[in-house]
Amino acid sequence: MLQRDLHTGVLDALLQANRDAIIVIDSDRKIVEFSASAESTLEWKRTEAIGKPCTEILRCQDTDGTLLCDAGCPLEPLLTQGKNRSTAPTLISSAGGDVRFLESDYTSTRNPDGKGTHCVGVLRNAAEGEWIGSFGAEARRLLSLGTISAGIAHEIRNPLTGIRTTIQYVLKHLERDDRNRESLSASIKELDRIEHVISDFLAYSRPPAPRRRLTNVNRVLSDSIALARDSMVAARIEMETDLEEGLPLLNVDGSMMREVFLNIIVNARNAMRKKGGTLRVASWLSPRSNRDSPTGVRIAFSDTGPGIPEGGSSEIFEPFISSGAKGMGLGLSISQRICKAHGGLISATNNADGGARFTVILPIPRPKADPVKTDAATTKTEPGEAVKEGSAA
Fold first, then answer.
1. How far apart are CA 25 and CA 49, in angstroms?
2. What are the tens digits of pLDDT across the range 63-99?
3. Long-range contact list for 367-375, CB < 8 A, 24+ apart?
4. Is the pLDDT reported for residue 12 higher than 70?
5. Which CATH number fits domain 2-131: 3.30.450.20, 3.40.50.720, 3.20.20.80, 2.40.50.140?
6. What is the mean pLDDT of the chain?
7. Do the domains at 134-205 and 213-363 have one common CATH topology?
8. What are the extents of the domains in the chain?
9. Helix %, strand %, coil % of the chain (to 5)
10. Model confidence, pTM
11. In angstroms, what CA-CA distances link 177 with 164, 169, 183?
12. What class, spelled out in words, does domain 213-363 have in CATH?
């Protein structure tokens, strides 16, 4: 008895003193142990985490943004396939919704029959471990790119401002019926397009930090649809919506999420521009199979266009990849970065009956999260503003 108590005490001391986050998960995917370092790393108290499904506490994603709870759970080979160890870099959402890049190392324990009973997970901040991965490389690349692009943008914008001023001066002094007026007005529009390209490039290379507020995502989604409606009608594209009422407020930057939604809508419009079609937009709590303990909100955009070319789904979020004649192909890449900055993800696939489907998943803020700003009197969703709690889309 004394030896068992001593053994338990030593294990408990090791668990709580270890600098790495340690969690123990049983075969039902419920957390049965949660170390002190796990509390600080994931921002959950031990008493809150114990007994909860790991899908609710960890919400693991692959490094490409794929939600591992839906496919590719790292515990599956350990519990059902006889594997003893699984190691991989993983994105894990904290209680506050922030994404942490962690090196996860899971080991299984087995009963006498060889069946997996528990998984012991050691989670280490990637920057402190041996794995640097693509995130560190990307951060360094973006830092250099941001510095260079800011200088280039400055050098380009200065002469463009002079050109615009000169054209506007000439237009002001031309007769109304002067035949040069049309071509000069067209030049102003082209200058606007160049400015838009520069802004997109800067947004990609120097992404701003989200200004989060508790936001009604259905309201932001509806506003995005309204902004795009005229251009969709002109392209002979119908829009259908199925937005679930009563969705919880999300801790997001409404202006950024509007940009994501508009980028996806514009992408669908460009895909269906030649023949027209239908864009269906839906939102719902996720997962649908567990309405009492949802982990996120899903927004899906399904079009009836030609779909994503074979093998193209892995490249569609890469920068400078564009199927259209206009633009630099940065919209979806920027959208992916915005989603990841919010602890969410965006994915693309083809519908079984044709067309492409883009899905955005955003985490639901947990009670453990620090208080966030909200403006109960605000119902508009101008950039950076919140929406009224409980307002319906």
1. 11
2. 545 567 655 677 777 777 778 887 766 767 666 666 6
3. 368/43, 368/44, 368/45, 368/48, 368/95, 368/96, 369/43, 369/95, 369/96, 369/97, 369/251, 370/96, 372/212, 372/213, 372/214, 372/251, 373/212, 373/213, 373/214, 374/213, 374/214, 374/249, 375/213
4. no
5. 3.30.450.20
6. 75
7. no
8. 2-131, 134-205, 213-363
9. 40, 25, 40
10. 0.53
11. 21, 16, 12
12. alpha beta
What does CATH list as the number for 134-205?
1.10.287.130
Give the pLDDT confidence of 21-30 residue by residue, as tens digits: 888 888 888 9
At 281, the pLDDT band (50, 70, 90 cuts) reads very high
CA atoms within 13 A on the CB side of 105: 12
Residue 290: C-alpha distances to residues 49, 56, 69, 162, 363 (Å) = 18, 11, 13, 59, 15
> Residue 100: pLDDT above 50?
yes
Place of tokens 């489907």: 357
